[in-house]
Design brief:
By secondary structure, this protein is mostly helical. It is 63% helix and 0% strand.
Length: 119
């Protein structure tokens, strides 16, 4: 009889204990997610602060987009392509992988979508 009472107590406490432990794990996961989100928000606020600075925007436009101010001359150095492997007929190398300037990557995606061979 005592064994039956002990089993009944264990079973009656087991399910709530399982729920409690599961919820504690969920709380820990959500707290970690909250910390990651707060870090992302801080990074985005820092980026927003930088983008509010006209000098930073000008510098980024010059560096990334090769913009120049009126009266300035822009020179773009074009390096010859280096071929590390012999190209197979019909295969073409492109700068879609992230190398090169933004307009090289854009033009490479247009060529790839069109099916035209590379330069």
């Amino acid at each position: 009889m005592l064994g039956l009472v002990v089993c009944a107590l264990v079973l009656s406490v087991g399910y709530p204990l399982k729920q409690y432990l599961g919820q504690r794990g969920e709380i820990g996961r959500l707290q970690q997610q909250r910390r990651e989100t707060e870090e992302r928000v801080k990074a985005l606020e820092e980026q927003k602060r930088r983008l509010a600075d006209p000098d930073y925007v000008k510098a980024q436009a010059r560096e990334r987009l090769h913009y120049v101010l009126p009266g300035e001359s822009a020179y773009v150095v074009i390096r010859p392509r280096q071929r590390s492997q012999p190209e197979v007929a019909g295969a073409r190398s492109s700068t879609v992988d992230g190398a090169g300037s933004w307009y090289d990557r854009l033009w490479a995606t247009v060529r790839a979508a069109d099916g035209a061979p590379g330069p």
